[in-house]
Amino acid sequence: MPISFLHSKGTEAPIKIPAIGLDLFVRMPPAASSGEFCFIETINAPGAGPPRHRHREAEIFRVIEGRYLYEADGQRFYAEAGDVVSIPGGVEHGFCNVTDKPARQYILMAPALDAAAFFTELAGVMHDGIPDQAALNAFGLKWHVEFLGPPVNRNDQPTE
């Protein structure tokens, strides 16, 4: 697997999606790994997370700061700083920051998703808040992402 030299600076501006409390940095775009994977960093606002969804890409999350409640295939569990969570491609999932401060994680997606284009377009779709599921899925068709329901709620109870 060829990896290109890349220097992703910490001073780069994030892609912001206020409707889901997300600041996202693309730390390694698909071109740097010949499309094998991409690497992103997220900062999630307190209580925030994406709508439940599924896609063909597998994801590996590493919690850097804070605590998250994850849901994968209906099972809910906490992940804290230092924890790693892997979600296979095609699995319904979501998560939310359960703390009162911003939480941060790194995410590796394989195969790569053009995260800069996807999240920039998603920010446009969500400029007035989270649209209904039909509108999200109309957007998701282009990206092979199916939106399945509301974000995980930090008041939900873990099942593990």
Folded structure, characterized:
By secondary structure, the chain is mainly β. The chain has helices at residues 115-125, 133-143, and strands at 15-17, 22-28, 38-44, 51-55, 58-65, 67-72, 75-80, 84-87, 93-97, 103-110, 145-151. It is 14% helix and 41% strand. β1 and β2 form a beta hairpin. It is globular, with a radius of gyration of 15 Å.
Which key terms come to mind for this protein?
single chain, 160 residues, mainly beta, 6-stranded antiparallel beta sheet, 3-stranded antiparallel beta sheet
> Helix content range of the residues, please?
10-25%
The proportion of residues in beta strands is 35-45%
Number of strands: 11
Q: Structural class of the helices, strands and pairings?
A: mainly beta
Output the strand order for the largest sheet. Answer: 1-2-3-10-5-8
Q: What's the number of helices?
A: 2
Low-confidence segments: none
Mean pLDDT: 95
Order of SSEs? EEEEEEEEEEHHE
Largest sheet: 6 strands, antiparallel
Principal-axes geometry comes out as globular
How far apart lie the N and C ends?
36 Å
Cα gyration radius (Å): 15 Å
Protein name: Cupin domain-containing protein
Organism: Xanthobacter aminoxidans
Pfam families: Cupin_2
Domain Cupin type-2: 45-104
